[in-house]
Design a protein that fits this description.
The complex is a heterodimer.
Chain A (H helix, E strand, L loop, with lengths): L1 H19 L24 H16 L4 H17 L8 H15 L2 E6 L12 H14 L8 E3 L9 H11 L6 E3 L3 H4 L5 H7 L4 E5 L2 E5 L16 H9 L12 H13 L7 E5 L17 H8 L5 E5 L7 E4 L2 E5 L34 E7 L5 E7 L5 E3 L1 H5 L16
Helix pairs in contact in A: 1-2, 6-8, 10-11
Chain B lengths: L1 H4 L4 H14 L3 H9 L19 H11 L12 H6 L9 H11 L12 H4 L46 H10 L9 H9 L2 H11 L5 H12 L8 H6 L8 H11 L22 E2 L10 H14 L3 H10 L8 H4 L8 E2 L21 H9 L19 H12 L7 H17 L6 H4 L13
Antiparallel strand pairs in B: 1-2
Helix pairs in contact in B: 2-14, 6-10, 6-11, 8-11, 13-18, 17-18
Classes of the chains: A alpha/beta, B mainly alpha.
């Protein structure tokens, strides 16, 4: 008796599978069966599976044989186009279709930031970390339109560090957009960095969005009068919590460049700015700070939608000032603690990183750009589940779409 | 019907298969895959079904080991002990006697050949000495049998921690289709319910007739008496400097220092078995051909379809077993991560790791010395250790000093056997990586 029933079921499943291949032609028509049945009772895996099949079948009722064949062929073609064998698992195919669908209405770029490389003979952990980020990004499917490197490629601006970093970044499949950080700059004042990557201040247009890249780590000369050597200068800037250095600025020259760069754009144009330091004043003792931030913001204020993507702070960090949305990037090397004061209320904090896992709190990520210039920031934390801070959350002034707290308990 | 109902997920497997092919373009990974082979079981010569020691001989051994005493063993902090015993299942002599009878009762399995003690063989330190467990119908599982010794000190049970207590753990193998194979708990109860001896023992222990939940409670009560914490190491800590050899003493220093063992294997009064009770990816899974592709695919699934259906199918029918803790928590932190095993009695519980892929403690040292197997999810604490042969031998010697004195004879024999095996084969040894002459990423930067 049992055997007969099972055989019958198998037959039914075979039939279902045949029909299912036709499904991707109309993925949206399929209702999602839920894990809970009537009165909220948990429904078993098998029951849910059969329910899924029933819903799928019902969605296809009424298709005659010719229609079925047509749908099958379409599905097979769609599957081949996605590089998936036609008999493979359908939900992932739908996932690809969904991703492609989203691409039509915007695009994504990936980011890697603050790798702080030492020469691999001195410290290979940070090298492994940067390589992991490269692996992460190279595995994205579909590939991002480009990869932003957020600055501080090197730890002490050493030629070996910068060259190692350049070599590793060359293995990225997608094009790379470079930004400079203070750790790359203050040994030779950016000479080698420019040789390797070009000018640090530039702009480009991509799919209707205007991108400008700034060098926001310029400091007033504090080294000449003290007679510091280049290495002493480098080490002073590399120290986080000291009073010996000056605050970061974008500077008059670059601000003028920025004004001219933005001059032709209507206020409806979506603008995205890359800067190493946050383009606002967060915490001066750590240089989580740009001294002429107000002046820079004044140049950006007239645009309806501006996103600033910055490095330097090595943490999940979110802020909004008027129509300007600010998103920090994760570091591949180490997470910083949050500044003791001035944390923007938009920030969903990542809880204290696990001191027993050097990867925790580090990571890389992606930015999804909507056609209106609104960005969703994806934090790909290596030891945690990814967290997306959406543009909608910022635009609604935290009323909608609050990101979930990180899946690690606070200590 | 339960197994065939899962068949429709065959498409999931196809998916993973496709992923594996896509990922197989990494020449290093496929070379490793070809090299990988499960070691043979450690020879035991049991004589019972599935190569186990006959139950009568095991019961004799249990008498000899003087286990089955309720209450905290000497030298164990009462707070640590109490934390391990649930309110509603305080161990009594009656409960322990029932648990021991159930532990050695093959009738609990569908074909009457497998008891708990079949894989957790008392004569061999409560393990089966096989890479992976063998259940009814000679089915092989996917994971290595952990010892029942000191299991009560583990915060969670199984390699992936999917059971929260000994009570919960004890019942799962009974209904696992390839372990003891009962269709449900009631069937296991029926198998012994007619036996007046069991009827009497159940009544004495829990005041009611045989039932499934009390079966778990009794088994747990018995397992809580399997305390094996009297090793040369403990005597050394108490001040007997001759209890450990000079080599083992040097190994203890390395354990706490250069070899970095203590980072995950803290061994102290609060953590007597030497486990941090956490889950780490140390790269053992990464030796398997499709680990990386599998994890990527599992994550893709998680992002698009995190329904229990999809994850269950992965776990049941694919190599996704290698994803370890991830399948329980679906957290990225746990991809390829397995529970930190206790280090107590480690000398007599070969082969090692969740898949039993390491024959000797020298293999284990080789694995750690090279910084584990590189993979995207490798635990951040894994680093090449640069231990030389003498230092590794010292750490191994220290590990053999963690075996309870009741197994001293077996420990001596096993140390000699492992030394002999290690003299002939060291499949995981990689001095270039251990001493950072070659870095994990060398060869990738030449592009």
């Amino acid at each position: 008796m049992r055997r007969t029933k099972a055989a019958k079921r198998t037959k039914q499943i075979e039939r279902t599978e045949r029909v299912e291949r036709a499904e991707p032609a109309e993925p949206a028509a399929r209702a999602e069966p839920t894990a809970r049945g009537p009165r909220g009772r948990i429904v078993g895996v098998e029951t849910r599976y059969m329910e899924e099949r029933r819903v799928a079948l019902e969605g296809l009722r009424g298709i005659d044989r010719r229609g079925f064949l047509r749908a099958s062929a379409a599905a097979a073609a769609a599957a081949m186009a996605c590089g998936v064998a036609p008999h493979s698992f359908q939900p992932v195919r739908v996932a690809f279709a969904g991703e492609r669908g989203r691409e039509r209405d915007g695009f994504r770029f990936a980011y890697i930031s603050d790798s702080h490389l030492f020469e691999e003979k001195l410290n290979d952990r940070f090298v492994r970390a940067l390589l992991r980020a490269v692996d992460d990004v190279n595995r994205l499917d579909p590939q991002p339109d480009f990869v932003l490197f957020g600055g501080d490629l090197a730890q002490l601006g050493q030629p070996a560090e910068l060259r190692l970093g350049a070599q590793i970044l060359r293995s990225l499949r997608a094009p790379v957009r470079m930004m400079v950080g203070e750790h790359d700059w203050y040994l030779d004042m950016g000479e080698l960095w420019r040789d390797l990557f070009g000018e640090p201040t530039y702009s480009f247009d991509h799919k209707g969005v205007h991108f400008t890249v700034l060098n926001s780590i310029l400091e007033e000369d504090f080294w000449s009068e003290r007679g510091l050597s280049p290495m002493e200068r480098m080490k002073t800037v590399a120290g986080l919590d000291n009073n010996a250095q000056r605050p970061f600025t974008v500077g008059v020259e670059q601000r003028e460049w920025l004004r001219r760069d933005l001059a032709g754009l209507p206020s409806t144009a979506p603008v995205i700015v890359f800067s190493h330091s946050p383009l606002y004043k967060l915490y001066k003792p750590w240089n989580f700070w740009t001294d002429d931030a107000d002046e820079v913001q004044a140049l950006l204020r007239r645009f309806r939608s501006v996103a600033v993507i910055h490095g330097h702070t090595h943490q999940m960090l979110t802020n909004r000032i008027g129509s300007i949305h600010f998103h920090g990037m994760l570091s591949t090397a180490w997470p910083w603690p949050y500044a003791p004061e001035g944390l923007p209320e938009y920030t969903v904090q990542m809880s204290r990183p696990d001191p027993f896992n050097p990867n925790d709190g580090c990571g890389d990520g992606q930015v999804r750009v909507h056609p209106d210039g609104l960005v969703d920031k994806i934090y790909q934390l290596w030891n945690r589940n990814p967290i997306t801070v959406t543009g909608a959350y910022l635009r609604s002034a935290r009323r909608a779409g609050r990101p979930p707290a990180p899946n690690r308990k606070a200590y | 019907m339960p197994r065939s109902a899962a068949r429709p997920f065959a498409r999931l497997i196809v998916l993973c298969g496709a992923a594996a092919t896509a990922g197989a373009c990494d020449p290093a990974a496929s070379a490793q895959a070809q090299e990988r082979s499960f070691p043979a079981s450690v020879p035991v010569g049991g004589g019972g079904p599935h190569g186990t020691t006959p139950m009568t001989a095991q019961r004799r051994k249990m008498d000899e080991l003087k286990i089955g005493i309720p209450g905290p063993p000497p030298g164990i902090d009462a707070a640590v002990w109490n934390a391990a015993v649930p309110e509603d299942n305080q161990p009594t002599q009656e409960r322990i006697i029932l648990g021991r009878a159930l532990y050695t009762e093959p009738r609990l399995s569908a074909d009457g050949t497998v008891a708990c003690a079949t894989c957790h063989d008392a004569v061999h330190g409560f393990i089966d000495r096989r890479p992976v467990a063998e259940g009814i119908g000679n089915n092989l599982g996917r994971r290595n049998t952990p010892t029942s010794m000191n299991a009560s000190f583990m915060g969670v049970q199984f390699w992936d921690g999917r059971a929260g207590s000994l009570e919960a753990q004890a019942l799962l193998p009974i209904v696992n289709p390839i372990e003891m194979g009962q269709p449900d708990g009631e069937a296991a109860v029926r198998a012994i319910a007619g036996d007046p001896a069991f009827e009497k023992m159940f009544r004495a222990a829990y005041g009611r007739g045989p039932n499934y939940m009390d079966m778990g409670r009794a088994l747990a009560s018995f397992e809580r008496t399997l305390i094996f914490l009297d090793a040369p190491f403990d005597r050394f800590l108490r001040g007997d400097e001759d209890a450990m050899t000079p080599g083992a003493q040097r190994g203890w220093v390395l354990f706490n220092g250069k070899a970095r063992c203590v980072a995950c294997h803290p061994i102290n009064a609060a953590s007597p078995i030497g486990s941090d009770e956490r889950f780490h990816n140390i790269g053992v899974s990464a030796r398997h051909q499709n680990f990386d592709a599998l994890s990527s695919k599992a994550i893709a699934l998680l992002e698009e379809n995190a329904s229990p259906t999809a994850i269950d199918a992965l776990a049941l029918e694919t190599d996704a077993s290698e994803l370890g803790r991830f399948l329980v928590t679906r957290s990225y932190a746990d991809v390829g991560a397995f529970r930190t095993q206790q280090i107590r009695n480690v000398g007599i519980t070969a082969p090692y790791m969740h898949d039993g892929s390491m024959m000797t403690l020298w293999d284990v040292m080789d694995h750690y010395n090279k910084g584990g197997e590189p993979n995207r999810f490798l635990d951040g604490g894994m680093e090449p250790l640069a231990l030389d042969e003498g230092e590794m031998a010292d750490v191994v010697e220290f590990m053999f000093a963690l075996t309870d004195v009741r197994f001293a004879r077996e420990n001596q024999a096993e140390m000699a056997r492992q030394r002999e095996v290690a003299r002939k084969q060291r499949p995981f040894r990689d001095d270039d990586m251990a001493f950072r002459r070659r870095l994990a990423f060398d060869g990738r930067q030449t592009r």
